[in-house]
Predict the structure of Lipoprotein.
Amino acid sequence: MKKAFLLLFTFTIISCGSENLSNSKAEDIISDCLEKTPQQRQELLTLGKATFSTKDYDVKLLNNYLQLKEEGYIEMELIKEITKGYRKGSKEYNIKLTDDAIDYIIESNERSAFVKTFIYKVDEVLEVQETPATNTAKAKVKFEAKDITPFAILSKKDPTEFWIKDFKLTKTSNGWKYCDNF
């Protein structure tokens, strides 16, 4: 009787420990973790005095700021246009946030503000590669942008393009884990 019980107990332990990680299970585990700490993208917005040159990057940035002004999220007041010297053609503005922008501010001071641009959410798990020797797995995850804010125009990453990232999952006695304490 003891041998039968011991054999049944051993079989149960082995069968519980041999759980494979599927794409859908990896997606559920990673999505649950990212609900707690989302992949929030943010950008730095210059406040106070800001100078925009005639270089392509500054012209694009100025156009983005002017669009935010038109939409009512920032106030911009032209201080001066520089007409002489190496900075010829540059423009200096005084920039302030409006009350409409408050919902998108993560952190701010008198010189700058970090603003939300969008959040990456799991779209799908493309593949899972298990490494049984180390009780780990690598999941290749495709993300898509959600909750896109008006400040997304400042982002270096295009929210319409997907993003792929590898995640390492660990197999424990309680199953596969990504962000939980083991």
About this structure: Residues 4-17 have pLDDT under 50 and may be disordered. Residues 30 and 178 are 7 Å apart (CA to CA).
